[in-house]
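Its record is set out here:
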Amino acid sequence: MSDILRELLHVSEKAANIARACRQQEALFQLLIEEKKDGEKNKKFAVDFKTLADVLVQEVIKQNMENKFPGLGKKILGEESNEFTNDLGEKITLRLCPTEEETVELLSKVLSGNKSASGALAKVVHQDVTFTDPTLDSVEINIPQDILGIWVDPIDSTYQYIKGSADIKSNQGIFPSGLQCVTILIGVYDLHTGVPLMGVINQPFVSQDLNTLRWKGQCYWGLSYLGTNIHSLQLPASKRKSCDTRSRSRVPEDRSAEAECSHRFSAVISTSEKDAIKAALSRVCGERIFPAAGAGYKSLCVVQGLADIYIFSEDSTFKWDSCAAHAILRAMGGGMVDLRRCLQRSSETGLDLPQLVYHVENEGAVGVDRWANKGGLIAYRSRKQLETFLSLLIPNLAPVGTQT
C-alpha cells in the first residue's frame, strides 16, 4: 500500500526533526542519555546508551502510524523500550499525548522538571512536516495491511549520535564515523514469509550550514511487492545496463585477470570486523575497503552505490538494523543474505542465496538476541555481482571460512 509508505516517509522526517532538535543544545543533550539495562545492551559495546531521542522517535512512529492505519501500531517492533527513568529514580512510560501541553507535562517528568527543554521537545514532536516524492506519488500499490509487520531502529549508531562529531572527513564519499553515520530505519516485512517489502532510511545529518550550524538530511526508500519494484534512486536503463555488463566482466579467466578484476570490488565493513575477513577482503578488494560506523549507514552506502558490498561476520546486528535497507536493495535488484550460510553453500545443501527474513525469532535465544542476524550478513545491489564476489572471497577465506 503506497499510502503506508508515504506515511512512513512523512513520519521518518518528523523523527529526523526530533533527532536534529535534540542535538541543538549540548546542555540539553546531556540530560537525554541513560545507560541501557543489561538485558537491552548490544554485547558489541562495553557501554550502550538509550537516549530520550530514541524513545521519542520510536513512539512518534508508532502513534502516527496507528492514527492513520488503526491496528498497524501494534505490529511495530523496535529496539527501544518506552520506559525511561529520570534523575529521581522514577520510572516513566513515555508516550505521545493528544496535546502539546500534555506532552510537555510528561516530558518534564522525564527531564526532572526542566520545562524549557520539555517545551522545546514537545513542540517538535507535535510539529507537522511535509514530505513529497513524485516517483512515489505516481504509483498505487495495494498491499493488505493485515500481512504487514514493521521493524524500527529509531536512531541507529547511537554512539555517533551521542558523540556528535561534525567535522569528520569522508573517504571517497564514505564517512568512517560522525553524525553522518546516524540513520533512522523503518522496514516493513510480510508477517507470513518474513520477506521485506518496504524500507525507509532517513539520514538526518547530511550537510551542515556553517553559519547557523543547522543540519539538513536526506531520505531514501524502496518498495518491492509482487513484481513491482520502485525506489528513490531509480537509475536510467542505460546506467543499469552498464552496471550489469561491468558485473559480468568481473569473472576472472586467469590469475592475472583475477587480480585486476577483483580489485574493482569495494566493501564497507565494521571497525570490529574479524582479521580473517579483513585479510580475505584485502585480496579481493585491494585498498577499496572502507571501515564505517552504524549498520544502517553501511547498508546505505551500498544502496547509494558508494560501496559494492557491506559484509559483517559477527552476530551483533539485528532485524531492526537490516530490514529497511534490505527492502530498498530488493527494489533495486539486490538483497541481504546470511554470510555463514553463503559460505556453507554446496550442491548438496543447495545453491539458493539465503536471504535474511524478519518474522522468526532465533530458537533458544533470549533478550535482543532473539532477533539477531546470527550468521552475519552481506548486503549487495546485484545478484551477479554477489555471486562473483563470493567466488573470489571464499577461496581466500579457506580454511577459516567455516569458523566465521
